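2024-03-11 09:14:02 DEBUG pipeline.ingest accepted 1 chain
2024-03-11 09:14:02 DEBUG pipeline.ingest length=496
2024-03-11 09:14:03 DEBUG pipeline.predict start
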Amino acid sequence: MTKNRKSPWQELLNEGRRKQELKKPRGHGVATPVDPSKGETRTEIERDYDRILFSTPVRRLADKTQVFPLDANDSVRTRLTHSHEVSNLARSIGTALVFEKEIASGIKNANRNLPALLAATGLVHDLGNPPFGHQGEVAIQSWFIENEISVLSQLTDVQQKEDFKRFEGNAQGYRLVTRLQLLNDDFGLDLTYATLAAMMKYPTTSNKIDKKSAVTKKHGFFASEQHIAEQVLGHVGLSLGRRHAAAYLMEACDDIAYVVLDAEDAVKKGLASFSDLINYLKHHGQKDEVVERVCKQSSEKHDEYRSSKHKLSPAELNDISMQRFRVYAIGELVRASVQAFIKNESTFTKGVEKKTLLEMSSGETLRKVLKEFSFKHAYTHRSVLKVELEGYNVIRGLMDILWAAIVDREDSANPCSDRLHPFSRYVYGQISENYRRVFENPIEEVASMPIRYRECQLLTDMLSGMTDSFAINFYAGLTSAQGSYNPVLIRDQHIT
């Protein structure tokens, strides 16, 4: 392929940053070229990956649930290990696309930037998730829905209400890197346009969700960051409702990682065996070629290990057989994703495809059946449901206490005014200084929004930043110290 300035990848790999717009005329904010003589050998997108990797929220993922909350088995995956695995798969796909398939050929640094972009989006994709996995999101959503009259009635804008009733970890992640993870200004990590667009899995608002489309079935940003999202999408040649091509690829890697590796974790925990998995795939795979190939290869290795001279125990046999299964299954799904992307590149680069990449690939049956297996043997297992319920109750209890502390102040119109009750003052002081600073001293674009909206965001910012263990310990500490303090009564006293 010859160099083509009209290639959509020219804009999709935009290395400019928002902060640069303050110093340069409006345009695409083209980044300063890599200059090894000045000690910088990384491209701007490669620098994005490093900024994300060394940020505090990434480290918190080590104590956030993937599937099994608060699991004592170190080999079972957390959000951190999951994110690293997704990032690794995404980088591998990016490498295959630029070197083997010559995607974005002729675009400067594309052979470095596309793999780096995919690695960065894989690492950042779960950064905004609250503790206790999906149940954390459900707990936050349900609290706002049940307390809509007392908490959200002051909001007249539908989108602002829906931001909380449909609280979304993806939108919180976008807020985190653009606003909350401060360096020394209001730009967060100040990631490139390419990375900010590619991490926007759902480029739409909370009041325009379409469950029939993979691109808009959830929302990717809050009303407070909508102007940032629109600006970012414009700089990569897209608009609201149109997804960055790399987001389709990252989504596929996320799906691959969780369907294959969640099944592996279920076997590691003894909730099912390797033979259970193979039999399930054979029975429900509808004689799919990819499913049959993975089962055949994995079963042959299983038989080989079982008859080996090392006389493996059942647990060891399960473990090593699942390792081989993981290799074969991931290999098939990655190849299927690459082939489907190449075949449909034009619709993906335009951001208009409503299906997921795997849905359009030969690996869809394998993905679907693996997900069904994990749902049956892992996601709904009583040990998982018990801890999820504990996490659900902890989050709901924390929201009652934190909300009362946020609104229990002398001057309801002044977020900086003193809290009325001693316990409210204590709890408010426990909220991260960074989150309180954003709440009390909003930037111009947010200052015009209702103070009730900002109060709700302070609540969700604090909750989402917690790890599983911190949430449990924090709640236990607060409940033991509250005495006769009733957060529900305090909350109701401040309904206006």
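2024-03-11 09:14:41 DEBUG pipeline.report The mean pLDDT is 90.
2024-03-11 09:14:41 DEBUG pipeline.predict end
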